[in-house]
Amino acid sequence: MEDLRIAIVHDWLTGMRGGEKCLEVFCELFPRADLYTLVHRPGAVSAIIERADIHTSFIDSLPFSHRLYRHFLPLFPSAIERFDFTGYDLVFSSSHCVAKSARRPPGGLHVSYVYTPMRYAWDLYDSYFNEKTSGPLTRWIARPAMCRLREWDRATAERVDCFLAVSKHVADRIRRSYNRESHVIPGPVDTRRFAISSRIEDYYLIVSALVPYKRIDLAVRSFNQSGLALKVVGSGPDFKRLRKLAARNIEFLGYVSDEELAGLYARCRALVFPGEEDFGIVPLEAQASGRPVVAHGKGGVLETVVPLNPAGQNPCGQEPPTGIFFYEQSEAALTSAVGQMEKNISRFCPDLLRKQAMRFDREVFKARILQYVRSEWMRFQWKTGS
């Protein structure tokens, strides 16, 4: 595949989150590929991504776009469709918004790795446009606009030849949203960055973007009530609101370096993961550090965390437990799950937790992506007679 002309398409480059950690692997696999994106804030992503030949859309030149790019959502379809991929053999889109709607290159192949169908327009519409997060005028404008966006998103699924999904949970959503089947390749965790520590401290940990659907507010209210120490790593639109809501036992750390983050993972009592995620690399990073997870038992986490059964022990023949689930997104349910973790924390073996994370190691992911793309390219050549 070294002779192919490849374009990678990613929604935006404004920070290193789960999607960008996957993108980093794609840039390593296809080092000569051109990278197309709606918005690029220089220095916001890793050196591996920054080394690519990056092409941006007209949105990148609009005022305040590097900070308020989400406000230009109605322009995203026009921006992604203006990219011209004529001359490319392969378009590989890395998508949680509109990247999957990139036009197929004439005579070429389009493979799309999907983290979620556009969450603003589909399952999480109410999380972004409700009385707490937006005003009446915004909600009045958003409803018809999102209806049109859903129609466009569904129609442009025809531009994709092969769908890859980050989890079975997302594969189900692709089926419901686009009526298309997809091949599942779980996202990667760079286990080399994390290690087990012999020193465990008395705090719980959250690592998350501070946006509504992550439900960090639920954790804040629960820990306000319990009084247990909680450290929150991350930033986002909800930062000020959440910090105002929090009691003194909750500490907001904002952005931390990779080295600091690895230490926070390794020394925490457990990770708290209160939202529903499409996949969720963060619980795997905690497990790679030998630490268990308290998580809402829905979504991608069901595929990466092995729950402790209610009796406190897993039956013979089942995988060793790596976390505790709560199934109702309520303060009481989360508080109960944390209490259960306090009682059973000695049952979680750090070495076995790390072993679970190794199943999703970055090198495993890289090999599976390359094998799949090679296979689909050979099938495409056979089909087209090229």
Description:
The chain has 386 residues and is an alpha/beta fold. It has 2 domains: 6-188 and 361-384, Glycogen Phosphorylase B (Rossmann fold, 3-Layer(aba) Sandwich), CATH 3.40.50; 191-358, Rossmann fold. The chain is built from 14 helices and 13 strands. The strands form 3 sheets. A 7-stranded parallel sheet has the order 3-2-1-4-5-6-7. Strands 8-9-10 form a 3-stranded parallel sheet, with helices on both faces. Helix 1 links the parallel strand 1 and strand 2. Helix 8 packs across helix 12 (331-344) and helix 11 (282-288) crosses helix 13 (350-358). The longest helix is centred in the C-terminal third of the chain and has 23 residues, at 362-384. The two termini are 14 Å apart.
